[in-house]
Amino acid sequence: MFLADIDIKKAIEQGEITISDFDLSRLQPASYDILLWNKFLIFNRHQIPYIDPVKKELPEYKEIIVNDDDSFVLHPWVSILWISHDYFGSDKYLIQLSWKSSLARIWLIVHNTAGLINPGHYLNIAFELCNLNSTPIILRPKMEIAQLLFSSISSIPKQNYKKTGRYSQENWSSYKDK
What we know:
Low-confidence stretches: 167-178
Structural class: mainly beta
CATH class: Mainly Beta
Number of domains: 1
Order of helices and strands: HEEEEEEEHEEEEEHH
Number of strands: 12
Mean pLDDT: 86
Shape: globular
Radius of gyration: 17 Å
Distance between the termini: 36 Å
Helix content: 10-25%
Number of helices: 4
């Protein structure tokens, strides 16, 4: 069962859900809108003739930083990886990422191959953004890009990411500063 807006707000107030810089204006009836951050990754397709995941022949990525008042032009049929501005997680709820229909209508594909965030996993999520339109699309830091849905699970899991220390809140500052 997905949480409604009043339940999401209550869970945040009780510390059951963490969302950095929580903004009540981004709370939807059953979701919360998250924003793009200033960092994204591109790869130089001219450096590698092909990608072979089995042989680990993968492209090298270059990090790009866009100032808050600047924009990035995503050209047709180009894909990039962009990181969310919002840092979020929960020990109690399963979080699901969903894209916004307003962006789907302009053929901006917002995808995340790991769209389920398990309890104890706190992160800035990476999005795969692809322009399937024939016209360039302007992207800006802090624009609304996707929404988070929170669902109850049958019980508190025996295992979670927080217990491993790999994705804990304590590691947040070192990741954010990279």
